[in-house]
Amino acid sequence: MSALYAKLNKDWTENFMLYASTSIIVSTCLGGIAVYTIFLNGSSLWSMIQVFAAVVMCTGVLASILTVQKPKVVLNTLLGSLGICTLLIVMNLLF
After folding, report:
1. What's this model's pTM, rounded to 2 decimal places?
2. Is 58 left (phi over 0), alpha (psi -120 to 50) or beta?
3. What does the pLDDT read at residue 1?
């Protein structure tokens, strides 16, 4: 797993401008899907907390790119966002 992350980080750093624009699109789309699946189950307080988590993570990716953070910071933020949004999608589709 560590070797895969190191290879991904190296490629990410070399092609940062390409991946930055793609990560904006991917993070935003996955966040939108996450919010949609959350609202399929209603609009309780728990749903609003989940929406808040998805929005914060997706906004974090955008903010890290727009504030010109180091590529490793942007990559870690993107991976966190993708992980949280995917978890929210799966959790709301299964339960």
Report:
1. 0.93
2. alpha
3. 87
